[in-house]
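Please review the protein record below. Let me know how this chain folds according to its tokens.
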Amino acid sequence: MLQKSRQLALPQKVISYYLLFSLTALVCVLVGGAWASRRAILHGTARRHLEGLEKIESSLVLSLLRNDQGRAKELLREFGETRELLACAALDENGQQIAEWPEKWKAGLPLEENSWRIRWNGLSGRHISHGDRPASWQFRIPLKAQQEKVGTLVVAIAEPDLSSAWIWGKGLGPWVVCGSLFLLAAGAVALNRLVAPFRKLEHQLREAAIQPVLSDFAPPTLPGNLAVLRGWNRVVEHLRAQAESHEWRKRLREALENRQAQKVEAILQSLPDGIAATDLEGRILFANDVLRALVAPDGENALEGRNIHECWKLADMPRTAQELFNEPSQRTCIQEIPSGEGEDRRVLRISRQPLRSSDSETGVGHVWTVRDVTQQKLANKMRDQFLDSATHELRTPLANIKAYAETLVLSDMADVEQQKDFCNTINAEATRLARLIDDLLSISSIEVGSLTLTRQNVDLERLLKEVITKVRPQMEQKHITFECHLPAKFPSMHIDKDKISATLINLLGNAAKYTPAEGRVTMRIRIEQDQLLVDIADTGIGIAEEDLPHVFDKFFRGQDQRVQHESGTGLGLSLAREVVQLHGGKLTVQSEWDKGSTFTVSLPVA
């Protein structure tokens, strides 16, 4: 951006240069005219006095060769009088004066080194001024015979009156000067009018030059019919059109950028993980709602601007987790840290990745991803418990089968009834193993998404009676009152008979397992709004409120000692819910601690 200055504008410069060069030219004309007049007078005088020198030169050469001084003097007198010379003299080859006119005129005086010079027709003369002699122009002409110098002719002419060179200036000079000045002034006025439009144009260009931002400068159109003004106006109109188009494109770009930013923010807000972006100092630039819920569950929303170190209590973290926040390196880092206390205790997996700009490899901040892995940790813990339980469940029937089989093989047992008892025990333990393996295979199918249904039209009444028959011995073994409330008419169902039967047996078996002796288990079948509802209620130990959200998780078993005392893998309810959902239904639970639980299976009739 240019700064304002006191420099002359272009029109003033043009007029100033015009006047300067015009006055210089006028002075040069005056001086040159005087000098030319002087030269003309000098050369005219020399021509008038010195014409015809060749005639006297030849005669003087003969006189000098003959040493005839009288003849030489006569020739000099005639030449001097004829040409109105001031004086003339003849010198021999040694420079000795042998003849002169007028008498006693000495031509041997030395010439002044700084005297004026004049040249005419190949002759060179000098201005002579000595003592009482009048000033003169003295020329020396060499006299030669056959290219050999035999003497010198010295001619002196009276100095011409140079004042005549300035005669024209006395009368015509003032008129010439005044006329020239008048013409200069008239030219300056005309030139000023001619460059006036350029003055306006230059002013606008200067204004444009000193603007900090050119896009904010709106130049006006200039009146006039000159081509340069019409061109300027066309440029201004074009710039205005471009400015309007640029403003429109700028607004459109801002709208698109805002829409893109809103779209990106909506995507980040919809992610299940907590997302945050921080600068190099750790200040939060963006945080989605999930991160706010994880970091500030009390409803504090103002995370932007805070340091991410303040979101967690670093003193309560392991040293490795503290390095995640304190280490300034640009490498990716992942840590799992505990958060909260008691029932609110969670495990968060925090990932930090460097954030780099698109045009540089240097980091400009970090992107943080926070995921609640509490359930995953619980699932891993329950899986480990399941493995321990499954190992125990597998080891016990296998040990029984091996023991009874070895007894049958190695002992001489004659009692047939005892052998039958051993075989029944082996069969029961094998059935127990098969059921456990089926549960494991079913869970594996669920995890890979390959669990399928084999639907068929099923006689629901017959299916329910078979289920009741299979679970009644377990009820009678614990002296549990088992009540069944069946409808008068059963709808037609298109379901997978084996999987629905296994689901109901599992639910009724759990009710019998966790209901103390002399308790009550009730199964009620009802039809409501094209839905078949199966309620299985018990008066057992119930489910703790904190365990209800996890009761259908794989490998989950409650922490109550009464639950841990019973054998189980924690897979039955997860498998039952998956089967019901594959049929388009729902499996729900209601329970109170130490009062019992009610599981409800809802299946569509159509």
The longest strand covers residues 148-158. Residues 271-372 form a domain with the Beta-Lactamase fold (CATH 3.30.450.20).
